[in-house]
């Protein structure tokens, strides 16, 4: 009987199956080995550079090195803008694992208020170039630094950087002249050179800081560092040092600037002082001021709103943007223009009954002295500030010649070289009125221009510049704020300087100056109280600018008006007369007559510059003004 097991086994078939399976297994192994080998070849050979670079990026990091911003000094080497060491909180978004979670932790650690937290998140999401640190917070204190250090492992992408922060020692006094730096915003990021500003968080926003940004900023550098797995720097592999910004020396005199601010004594106004021969701006004050240091680190919303809503407008730079009717301060310029145009001679005399009338017009244009000054020549018209003389002169010249002659002194134009944000104000003309109002020019409007009223508007810088040109006997030197950039002096002769003013006879200058000197020293001079005890010869002219127009028979009474409806007080002057070293313009808003409330301030500025230690201080000047009961009337 055959064995049943023989019928159940088939060795040959099993051998074939085994061989097939073994072959498939070998083929599978060969294929997989081939694929693995191919992948290894692809990664190690073809993609070698790519993965080497990626590996290095994990181990090696390139960090920007921001340059040190140039310092700003006054003409005597006194520091006006410096850099102080501080710690800033920055965030590289690409390295943060979870941005929202990271910001939540930071807000908790730093104990931010809701308002601070909102600004914090806005800055964190502000458009930024890839892998560039975003500045979240400046000027960290020791407690905040300690909390961040302890929790650093929970804050990927967050760094505490030691950097230099801008600081202004005389912030309130210098705020408008120097300006300030602030955080770079989203719009500025789009236009700035990414290489030059790598790692930089601040940029000049206003004033000298803005105008000379290219000079002060410098050039960013780079360093290559090796890091560990947690991103901490182990060693420095290479470095390109940053190029620091150049230092800037200004023409401003810190002591004179401080005096001007003290003289204004919290009142709204401006004082500008210039060296006529060189155009150097010695002082350029706008009051009230503000603490510019608040804007460096980022002013909080409540403080900024308080500044914006302040009725005294501390953020408004009155020295270069304030526009005021020049009042009678322009009478010396008009007198010279009348001589140049041949309309008057130095000895021409008019009879002033206290008013002027246009031909075939019943309206009376009043002199400030209602009963008139009687017989008035050119010098006396300046000394007593006679309106009737200049009504007549303006009518004979006409607005077209008035506009041409006054424009030659810089009125209606931007006059500064490096004064950022300056306004051109307004020197009205026939064409201007047609374009602005689509109306013709009327003769009565010419009379208003003839006494510095009507449409005519000037800035304190314009008035000081025109006074300097007058002191130079027509020679133009453009005002400037910088005297040296690094070690290189800024040239006196600057581009786009207007043409000099030529006259037929030097005697004309002498006669105009004589009238201006009599303003301070003459028996009828409107500012004769200010001229008491002068130790040098000084030429000046007072002015009173109306805030609103009076009716023909209406009289001005300051006591019946709200304070902000009262006249502005103006004064312009230069000294010494024979060799002018300083030209000054003063505007005090709503202070009344310029002969009493502005003249003393101009005298104090010239005393301080010319007499130095012998000059009275601000307290003595205020006492003098209080004792002056305005018994000297005049414009």
Protein traits:
alpha+beta, 635 residues, cell wall biogenesis/degradation, PBP_dimer, five-stranded antiparallel β-sheet, EC 3.4.16.4
Structure overview:
This protein has 635 residues and is of the alpha+beta class. It contains 24 helices and 23 strands. Strand 13 (269-274) and strand 14 form a beta hairpin. Helix 11 packs antiparallel against helix 23, helix 15 (331-340) runs antiparallel to helix 21 and helix 17 crosses helix 19 (443-450). The longest helix has 36 residues, at 11-46. The termini are far apart.
Offer a concise description of the structure.
The chain is of the alpha+beta class.
Strand content: 15-25%
- Number of helical regions: 24
Overall strand count: 23
How far apart, in Å, are the first and last alpha carbons?
A: 151 Å
Mean pLDDT: 87
Runs in which pLDDT lies below 50 for 5 or more consecutive residues are none
Give the overall form: elongated
The percent of residues in helical segments reads 25-40%
Rounded Rg:
37 Å
Biggest pleated-sheet summary? 7 strands, mixed
* Computed structural class: alpha+beta
Pfam family, one: PBP_dimer
Active site: 328 (acyl-ester intermediate)
EC number: 3.4.16.4
Subcellular location: Cell inner membrane; Cell membrane; Membrane
Tell me the layout of helices and strands.
Elements (H helix, E strand, L loop, with lengths): L3 H5 L2 H36 L1 H12 E6 L6 E2 L5 E13 L7 H12 L3 H11 L9 E4 L4 H9 L7 E10 L3 H8 L2 E3 L2 H6 L10 E3 L2 H5 L1 H5 E2 L1 E7 L5 E8 L2 E2 L3 E3 L3 H11 L4 E6 L6 E7 L5 H5 L3 H9 L8 H4 L9 H10 L9 E3 L2 E2 L8 E2 L7 E3 L1 H6 L3 H21 L22 H8 L5 H8 L9 H12 L10 E4 L2 E2 L16 H16 L17 E7 L22 E8 L6 E7 L5 H4 L1 H13 L6 H10 L8
Parallel strand pairs: 2-12
Antiparallel strand pairs: 1-9, 2-3, 3-4, 3-5, 6-7, 8-11, 9-10, 12-19, 13-14, 13-23, 15-18, 16-17, 19-20, 21-22, 22-23
């Amino acid at each position: 009987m055959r064995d049943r097991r023989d019928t159940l086994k088939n060795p040959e078939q099993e051998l074939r199956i085994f061989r097939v399976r073994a072959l498939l297994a070998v083929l599978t192994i060969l294929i997989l080995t081939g694929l693995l080998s191919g992948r290894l070849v692809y990664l190690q050979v073809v993609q070698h550079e790519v993965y080497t670079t990626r590996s290095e990026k994990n181990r090696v990091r390139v960090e920007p090195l921001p340059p040190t911003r140039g310092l700003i000094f006054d003409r005597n080497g006194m520091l006006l803008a410096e850099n102080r060491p501080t710690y800033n909180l920055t965030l590289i978004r690409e390295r943060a694992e979870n941005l929202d979670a990271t910001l939540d932790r930071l807000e908790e650690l730093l104990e931010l208020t809701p308002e601070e937290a909102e600004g914090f998140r806005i800055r964190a999401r502000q458009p930024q170039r890839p892998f560039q640190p975003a500045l979240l917070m400046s000027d960290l204190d020791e407690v905040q630094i300690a909390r961040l250090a302890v929790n650093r492992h929970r804050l990927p992408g967050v760094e505490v950087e030691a950097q230099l922060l801008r600081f202004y020692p005389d912030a309130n006094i210098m705020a408008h002249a120097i300006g300030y730096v602030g955080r770079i915003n989203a719009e500025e990021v789009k236009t700035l050179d990414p290489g030059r500003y790598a790692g930089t968080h601040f940029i000049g926003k206003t004033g000298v800081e803005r105008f000379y940004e290219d000079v002060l900023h410098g050039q960013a550098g780079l360093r290559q560092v090796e890091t560990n797995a947690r991103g901490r720097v182990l060693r420095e592999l290479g470095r390109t040092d940053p190029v620091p910004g150049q230092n800037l020396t200004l023409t401003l005199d810190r002591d004179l600037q401080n005096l001007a601010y003290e003289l204004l004594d919290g009142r709204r106004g401006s004082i500008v002082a210039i060296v006529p021969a060189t155009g150097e701006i010695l002082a350029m004050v706008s009051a009230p001021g503000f603490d510019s240091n608040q804007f460096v680190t980022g002013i909080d919303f409540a403080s900024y709103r308080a500044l914006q809503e302040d009725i005294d407008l501390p953020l408004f730079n009155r020295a270069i943007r304030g526009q005021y009717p020049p009042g009678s301060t322009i009478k010396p310029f008009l007198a010279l223009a009348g001589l140049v145009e041949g309309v008057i001679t130095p000895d021409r005399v008019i009879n002033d009954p206290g008013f002027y009338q246009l031909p075939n017009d019943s309206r009376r244009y009043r002199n400030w002295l209602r009963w008139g000054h009687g017989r008035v020549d050119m010098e006396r018209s300046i000394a007593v500030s006679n309106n009737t003389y200049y009504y007549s002169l303006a009518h004979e010249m006409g607005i077209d010649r008035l506009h041409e002659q006054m424009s030659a002194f810089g009125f209606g134009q931007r006059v500064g070289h490096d004064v950022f944000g300056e306004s051109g104000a307004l020197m009205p003309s026939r064409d201007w009125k047609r374009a602005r109002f689509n109306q013709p020019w009327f003769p009565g409007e010419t009379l208003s221009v003839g006494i510095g009223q009507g449409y005519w508007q000037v800035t304190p810088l314009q008035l000081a510049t025109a006074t300097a040109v007058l002191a130079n006997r027509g020679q133009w030197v453009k005002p400037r704020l910088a005297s040296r950039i690094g070690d290189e002096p800024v040239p006196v002769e600057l581009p786009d300087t207007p043409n000099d003013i030529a006259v037929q006879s030097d005697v004309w200058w002498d006669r105009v100056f004589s009238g201006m000197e009599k303003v301070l020293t003459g028996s009828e001079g409107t500012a004769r109280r200010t001229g008491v005890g002068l130790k040098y010869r000084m030429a000046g002219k007072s002015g009173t600018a109306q805030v609103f127009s009076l009716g023909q028979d209406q009289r001005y009474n300051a006591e019946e008006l709200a304070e902000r409806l009262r006249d502005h007080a103006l004064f312009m002057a230069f000294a010494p007369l024979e060799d002018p070293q300083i030209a000054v313009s003063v505007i005090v808003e709503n202070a009344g007559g310029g002969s009493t409330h502005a003249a003393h301030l101009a005298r104090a500025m010239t005393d301080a510059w010319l007499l130095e230690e012998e000059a009275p201080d601000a307290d003595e000047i205020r006492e003098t003004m209080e004792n002056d009961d305005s018994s000297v009337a005049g414009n």
